[in-house]
Amino acid sequence: MIQIGPYSLDTADPAALAGLIGAGVLLLILVLLIAALRAATRSARLAEPLAQQMMQLGQRVQGLSDGQHQLAGGLTHVAEAQAASQSHMLQLMEKRLAEVAGQMTENLQGSARRTAQSLGELQQRLQTIDKAQDNITKLSGDVLSLQDILSNKQTRGAFGEIQLTDIVTRALPSDSYTLQATLSNGKRADCLIHLPNPPGPICIDSKFPLEAYEALRRAKTEGELTEAARFLRTSVRKHIKDISEKYILDGETADGALMFLPSESVYAELHANFPEVVRDGFAAKVWIVSPTTCMATLNTMRAILKDARMREQAGAIRRELGLLFADVDRLGARVENLDRHFHQAAKDVSEIRISADKAGRRARRLDNFDFEELAPETEPALPPPADHKAG
Fold first, then answer.
1. Does residue 297 lie in a domain region?
2. Does 83 fall in a domain?
3. 4 has which bridge partners?
4. Which among 102, 239, 363, 378 could disulfide-bond with 207, CB atoms 3.0 to 4.6 Å apart, if both were Cys?
5. Model's pTM, two decimal places?
């Protein structure tokens, strides 16, 4: 028995039991509905943020879709810009490559021209070197020939004479010397300079002590050096003695003579290491000269010859000066006469100008019909024309 308020239900009654079960089921369903409703309410409250999130997510998805579309458009624009940039870059690269190719071609052509020019210059220099080599070879042969010439006394003497002749002909006038002049004693000098008295004609003879000098140069030991020095002293002193005896003649030549050494080295060796030999030459009035000092000595002789010839021509110069003074006086007289004529001509022109001015004034009066009585003008009497004489 179940007591529910004022009502009592018998559990043994099937109908009551069924009603009770039904009521319980209904109550259970009601409770379940309420619970479900509450759960649905809570779910709705819980789903609302989710819906909002879903809505926001949808909006974001839509934004992403729009961004994707924009990105696709931007990518398309970027692709187009990149394609255009690549095309422009290719054009620039092609242009630059063309310029570089042109510059390289020009540089290569310039390098080729410079190379060709350098090769041409090198070839010319090689030709010059070949010519120089030929000249050196020829000069070597000439040196050998010169050595052959100097090794013989006769040819060596001819060499000295030729060198002396060349120096004399370049330094002096042709009428002031005689080559290979024969003196009254029968001796023949290489050159005789016709100097006036004093000092008178002076002889020049060429000597070349080459063997003694070469022996001195080749000397290795003290003994060889002493022997070579003695040989050189002896040779030069012999030449000085020969010239003093042969080419210094009283009343015919000057009281001295010149010994010409055609080698500067031999001359320098004598003055540097053999001054006593040079002093011996001074004592014998034989002056040793080299090509250089011979030229200086001959130039001094040229001045002496010029001065002597001027003294010889002094009378003629005085006569010419007298004639010149007479010409100058005559010229002064004629200039004075011409000046007088010019002065008279200037005076005549001035008087003619006065007469012309008066004639012009009379013509202007007539042109203005000025027929009134004109006051007489006193015209100065003109002097009688001068009798001009030619100067």
1. yes
2. no
3. 7
4. 239
5. 0.43
